[in-house]
Amino acid sequence: MQKTFFCFIFLISTLGYSQKNLDQLLKRYNSGNIPYIHVDELKSYPDNIILLDAREQREYATSHLKDAIAVGYDFFNIDSTSQKIPNKNSKIVVYCSLGIRSEDVAEKLKKSGYKNVFNLYGGIFEWKNNQQKVYNLKEQETDSVHAFSKDWSKWLQKGIKVYE
């Protein structure tokens, strides 16, 4: 019986990294009101997309997508973001670590009149897991990714996990 229990726990823990479980995680925390854009789609989009990083400053400082604007989460301010992006028809992709906080920020953008707002599916973790480049504050490529917490870091499988 004990062996079966440990095999079950092992199976559950290894499944924790699958795409299906990421779908389940996002369904549990997100409303689905904001459409997702997947890494492959974002890679092929033209340069006129505006990227907004909905993580906190220390996370952004460790790594972010190229040319992303840090807007934060806890202190997100729609007024200052509107000043940076006056065109309500701009194509905007919001991301965070996994796509949970970014949905909240994206919903605030939608409510204030932005029409083309997307949430990056799986966030910067999925971006890095798909071997895409991330950059530090000096805009130099880095393998470091802020992993947010030990619990959430299991979703980051590529790169160097940073917790500070």
UniProtKB/TrEMBL annotation:
Q: Please name the source species.
A: Seonamhaeicola aphaedonensis
| Rhodanese domain segment(s) | 45-136
Keywords on this record? Transferase
Task: Please give the SUPFAM superfamilies that the UniProt record associates with this protein.
Answer: Rhodanese/Cell cycle control phosphatase
What Gene3D superfamilies is this protein classified in?
Rhodanese-like domain (3.40.250.10)
Q: What is this protein called?
A: Rhodanese-related sulfurtransferase
GO MF term set? transferase activity
* The organism's place on the tree of life at top rank: Bacteria
Q: Does the keyword Flavoprotein apply?
A: no
